[in-house]
């Protein structure tokens, strides 16, 4: 189908495009032009994007799909066209058949693209290496332990050596097992006042330091997920400055919330890693603005019963796919970051982490496109979410930025009701 998206503000952060009141043209699933109508082009469908931004589809570097149909519907409703799925499903994605089944199920549903992370070790137990080559062939884009640690440093070294041999990327959430195993919240004044067991920043920095040294030894490409502290981000930046193949991301909630948002044991504010101090939040914000890290939703749909428990027993995480865009816009406004830069952190930069040509509106690329109204407001309520997970510290808040249409490979996979 030939589609013209007209009268919009077309932003392609990767190529420095920011054109107002212009058109974008799609044919045979690809972008074929911006601005002037391509020769011979006749639109089968026209989308009026007056007052809207037209940008590459969002790429989410971390979203759990507990109910794949509902969560992929949530993804495209949030403008997300590619979803990286951690391997900590039930069962874990440690066999090629499981990864192949997930990819094919995503294709059948026909919403957002599903990009699975294969388990680095069998059962995510941190012991025996999973069948990485087979998992890669089945469609896994990298290998991860999700938030499960590899306690044995030698086992992690051997895994990274093997991955480096085949140029496989390894994604790790840096958290020292021994310092974090009994913790619930950030080790600080709030946790002390509430009587909650703390997780110190050192749990993150010690793990990052170990991973950096192993990268120096092996040359393995590593992506560090969900950095939560100023000290941790500084270590990552120093490693990047030294030329090591290390990238990282920050959960969008960590850019806006701190340990104080726990309030009086609000289970919706329990995350893994935990929300940290104000100075950590500010440092993360500055680092993302400077281009040191990408933003991800860390989408973790949790059943209502699992959030109605006392803080220490409630499952960590929040729904994120449908609020990744509005929360990124909220962060950009607070941090005084311009719109193209903010969009780059959820489009072009995640694509670069993946080594993908996505996250762009260049002629010839797949037409994965998000059309959103930055001025539109909506209230985050359980009824407003397509995700099965209604868990969010932002419940009841007004969100700015609403998706009007989402295209994946030139197909209309979501269009808001007028």
Mean of pLDDT:
97
Q: Could you give the count of β-strands? A: 18
The residue ranges in which pLDDT falls below 50 over 5 or more consecutive positions are none
Straight-line distance between termini: 22 Å
- The radius of gyration computed from the alpha-carbon positions, rounded to a whole number of angstroms, is 21 Å
Shape: globular
SS field, number of helical segments: 13
Explain briefly what this protein structure is:
With 418 residues, this protein is of the alpha/beta class. The chain contains 13 helices and 18 strands. Helix 7 runs parallel beside helix 8.
Furnish the topology, listing elements before pairings.
Layout: E1 3-12, E2 17-27, E3 30-34, E4 45-48, E5 53-56, E6 58-60, H1 68-77, E7 80-85, H2 96-109, E8 113-119, H3 132-137, E9 142-144, H4 153-165, E10 169-172, H5 177-180, E11 185-186, H6 189-194, E12 198-199, H7 202-218, E13 221-224, H8 230-241, E14 246-251, H9 278-289, E15 294-296, H10 304-307, H11 324-335, H12 339-344, H13 348-354, E16 369-379, E17 398-408, E18 411-415
Parallel strand pairs: 1-4, 1-5, 6-7, 7-8, 8-9, 9-10, 10-13, 11-12, 13-14, 14-15
Antiparallel strand pairs: 1-2, 2-3, 5-16, 16-17, 17-18
Structure overview:
By secondary structure, the protein is of the alpha/beta class. Helices cover 29% and strands 24% of the residues. The strands form three sheets. Strands 1, 2, 3, 4, 5, 16, 17 and 18 form an eight-stranded mixed beta sheet that branches. It has an eight-stranded parallel beta sheet with strand order 6-7-8-9-10-13-14-15, sandwiched between helices. Strands 11-12 form a two-stranded parallel sheet.
């Amino acid at each position: 189908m030939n589609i013209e998206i007209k009268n919009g503000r077309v932003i392609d952060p990767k190529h420095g495009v920011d054109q107002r009141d212009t058109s974008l043209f799609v044919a045979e699933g690809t972008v074929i032009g911006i601005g002037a109508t391509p020769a011979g082009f006749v639109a089968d469908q026209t989308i009026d994007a007056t007052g809207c931004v037209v940008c590459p589809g969002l790429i989410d570097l971390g979203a759990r799909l507990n109910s794949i149909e509902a969560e992929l519907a949530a993804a495209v409703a949030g403008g997300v066209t590619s979803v990286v799925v951690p391997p900590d499903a039930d069962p874990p994605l440690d066999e090629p058949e499981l990864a192949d089944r997930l990819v094919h199920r995503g294709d059948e549903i026909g919403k957002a693209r599903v990009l699975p992370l294969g388990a680095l070790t069998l059962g995510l137990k941190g012991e025996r290496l999973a069948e990485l080559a087979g998992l890669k062939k089945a469609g896994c884009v990298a290998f991860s332990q999700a938030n499960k640690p590899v306690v044995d440093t030698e086992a992690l070294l051997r895994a990274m050596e093997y991955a480096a041999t085949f140029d496989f990327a390894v994604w790790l959430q840096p958290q020292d097992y021994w310092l974090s195993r009994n913790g619930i919240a950030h080790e600080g004044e709030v946790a002390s006042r509430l009587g909650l067991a703390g997780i110190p920043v050192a749990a993150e920095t010690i793990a990052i330091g170990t991973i950096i040294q192993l990268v120096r030894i092996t040359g393995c490409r590593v992506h560090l997920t969900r950095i939560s502290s100023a000290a941790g981000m500084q270590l990552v930046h120093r490693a990047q400055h030294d030329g090591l193949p290390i990238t990282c991301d920050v959960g969008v909630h960590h850019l806006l919330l701190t340990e104080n948002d726990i309030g009086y044991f609000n289970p919706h504010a329990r995350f893994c890693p935990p929300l940290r101090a104000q100075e950590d939040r500010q440092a993360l914000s500055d680092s993302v603005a400077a281009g040191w890290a990408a933003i991800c939703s860390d989408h973790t749909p949790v059943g209502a019963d699992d959030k109605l428990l006392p803080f220490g027993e409630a499952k960590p995480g929040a729904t994120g796919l449908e609020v990744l865009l509005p929360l990124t816009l909220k962060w950009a406004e607070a941090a005084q970051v311009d719109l193209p830069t903010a969009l780059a952190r959820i489009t072009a930069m995640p694509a670069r982490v993946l080594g993908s040509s996505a996250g762009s509106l260049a002629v010839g690329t797949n037409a994965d496109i998000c059309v959103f109204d930055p001025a539109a407001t909506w209230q985050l309520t359980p009824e407003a979410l397509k995700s099965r997970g209604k868990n969010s510290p932002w419940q009841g808040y007004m969100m700015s930025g609403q998706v009007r249409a989402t295209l994946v490979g030139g197909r209309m996979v979501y269009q808001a009701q007028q």
